[in-house]
Amino acid sequence: MTTLRTPGPTIGVVGGGQLGRMLAEAAAPLGVEVVVLDPTPDCPAALVARDQIVAGFDDEAGIRELAARADVLTFEIELADQEVMKRVSEDTGTPVHPKPSTLETIHDKLVQKRELEDAGVPVPPFRAVEDADDVRDAIDDYGAPVMLKARTGGYDGRGNVPVESKADAEDALESVAGPAMVESFVDFEREVSVIAVKGDDEVATFPIGENIHEEEILRETVVPARSSDAVTERAHAVARDVLEVMDGRGVYGIELFETSGARSAPDDSSGRSPRESEGEILLNEIAPRPHNSGHWTIEGARSSQFEQHARAVLGWPLGSTELRSPTAMTNLLGDVDEEQSAQLEDIDEILETPGAALHWYGKRQARPLRKMGHVTLTAGEENESVEELLERARELEDAVTFRP
């Protein structure tokens, strides 16, 4: 039986960006305190967390201090050092969720893909590459373009470079600047994601979201995704298979491709028209933490991904993942040419629109395409289409601007 007391339990979070900020916001109503560790003084989470330890993500002394102040450790960025966290956990008895072994798997995308493929999770064809000739060989086998990915250090689309032709291979490898892998380019109908939760003895999945990317950066998510019931069911099944591979409690952001359906040949004997088959689901990437594509859950679901993460890492019962209302989320990215002080203007329309919610992350500096905040918009009318909802959310995002 779960017991709540005052003061309540403390979650120690490696990373104090916007995910740590929103985790602290969600934990507070549960009586749960959050202490974050981040190298940036007054990081975005510092305003709402109980305290911040200023230290690097691989700073063993800092992580030991965090463990001494927490009942459980977690992380909101994959740059957390899994070896240090494992060692600190073993020495102090403070558990880490998700487990450091999961973080180790996620750290290297090639290792991640191999383990998932071995477990029967559907993934695009992939291979390791050492040099430009390997990339060119992959283009011969897979066709152009291919997707070149940094094996380590990349997250939220960073470190992913489309290679359009063999002539681009060397420049693409130079931009990745480290160990790399190549995936075949997926002819997808849409990109979707499932926010999945692994609890103590239960799992839960949120409704699938449809994601719109530009320049490999997530711009918008709309829920429910414009997918068929069969594809939706398949996406949830794949997400649950992924959870079987992951070790430890918490939220996992699972990005998927919904492939285009194959068009069948006409049946000349019957005179029937060609039919479109259902698309397939292929795994793209996994984040072992709350994910940008799940921010819609704060307003759009019975419980948010951040509340679920707090519940899960503490071993508490999970909340409902039921959809409250169709919801669109749009990121507020730094539309600046160079780094400048963060200042968002003309927010009145967002604040005055029923069903709209503004989330500002408290970052001090705006940089080109940096995630500075997001806006969610829930459906205003029962019969409002997903397309209409998404268009209204885009209009709200277009109304605001960054100024020096």
UniProtKB/TrEMBL annotation:
<feature type="domain" description="ATP-grasp">
    <location>
        <begin position="113"/>
        <end position="314"/>
    </location>
</feature>
<comment type="similarity">
    <text>Belongs to the PurK/PurT family.</text>
</comment>
<keyword id="KW-0067">ATP-binding</keyword>
<dbReference type="InterPro" id="IPR011761">
    <property type="entry name" value="ATP-grasp"/>
</dbReference>
<feature type="binding site">
    <location>
        <position position="109"/>
    </location>
    <ligand>
        <name>ATP</name>
    </ligand>
</feature>
<dbReference type="GO" id="GO:0006189">
    <property type="term" value="P:'de novo' IMP biosynthetic process"/>
</dbReference>
<dbReference type="GO" id="GO:0004638">
    <property type="term" value="F:phosphoribosylaminoimidazole carboxylase activity"/>
</dbReference>
<dbReference type="InterPro" id="IPR016185">
    <property type="entry name" value="PreATP-grasp_dom_sf"/>
</dbReference>
<keyword id="KW-0436">Ligase</keyword>
<dbReference type="GO" id="GO:0005524">
    <property type="term" value="F:ATP binding"/>
</dbReference>
<dbReference type="GO" id="GO:0034028">
    <property type="term" value="F:5-(carboxyamino)imidazole ribonucleotide synthase activity"/>
</dbReference>
<feature type="binding site">
    <location>
        <position position="213"/>
    </location>
    <ligand>
        <name>ATP</name>
    </ligand>
</feature>
<dbReference type="InterPro" id="IPR003135">
    <property type="entry name" value="ATP-grasp_carboxylate-amine"/>
</dbReference>
<dbReference type="InterPro" id="IPR011054">
    <property type="entry name" value="Rudment_hybrid_motif"/>
</dbReference>
<feature type="binding site">
    <location>
        <position position="191"/>
    </location>
    <ligand>
        <name>ATP</name>
    </ligand>
</feature>
<keyword id="KW-0658">Purine biosynthesis</keyword>
<keyword id="KW-0460">Magnesium</keyword>
<dbReference type="Pfam" id="PF02222">
    <property type="entry name" value="ATP-grasp"/>
</dbReference>
<feature type="binding site">
    <location>
        <begin position="284"/>
        <end position="285"/>
    </location>
    <ligand>
        <name>ATP</name>
    </ligand>
</feature>
<comment type="function">
    <text>Catalyzes the ATP-dependent conversion of 5-aminoimidazole ribonucleotide (AIR) and HCO(3)- to N5-carboxyaminoimidazole ribonucleotide (N5-CAIR).</text>
</comment>
<comment type="function">
    <text>Catalyzes the ATP-dependent conversion of 5-aminoimidazole ribonucleotide (AIR) and HCO(3)(-) to N5-carboxyaminoimidazole ribonucleotide (N5-CAIR).</text>
</comment>
<feature type="binding site">
    <location>
        <begin position="183"/>
        <end position="186"/>
    </location>
    <ligand>
        <name>ATP</name>
    </ligand>
</feature>
<dbReference type="InterPro" id="IPR005875">
    <property type="entry name" value="PurK"/>
</dbReference>
<dbReference type="Pfam" id="PF17769">
    <property type="entry name" value="PurK_C"/>
</dbReference>
<dbReference type="GO" id="GO:0046872">
    <property type="term" value="F:metal ion binding"/>
</dbReference>
<dbReference type="InterPro" id="IPR013815">
    <property type="entry name" value="ATP_grasp_subdomain_1"/>
</dbReference>
<feature type="binding site">
    <location>
        <position position="149"/>
    </location>
    <ligand>
        <name>ATP</name>
    </ligand>
</feature>
<protein>
    <recommendedName>
        <fullName>N5-carboxyaminoimidazole ribonucleotide synthase</fullName>
        <ecNumber>6.3.4.18</ecNumber>
    </recommendedName>
</protein>
<comment type="subunit">
    <text>Homodimer.</text>
</comment>
<dbReference type="InterPro" id="IPR040686">
    <property type="entry name" value="PurK_C"/>
</dbReference>
<dbReference type="Pfam" id="PF22660">
    <property type="entry name" value="RS_preATP-grasp-like"/>
</dbReference>
<dbReference type="InterPro" id="IPR054350">
    <property type="entry name" value="PurT/PurK_preATP-grasp"/>
</dbReference>
<keyword id="KW-0547">Nucleotide-binding</keyword>
<comment type="pathway">
    <text>Purine metabolism; IMP biosynthesis via de novo pathway; 5-amino-1-(5-phospho-D-ribosyl)imidazole-4-carboxylate from 5-amino-1-(5-phospho-D-ribosyl)imidazole (N5-CAIR route): step 1/2.</text>
</comment>
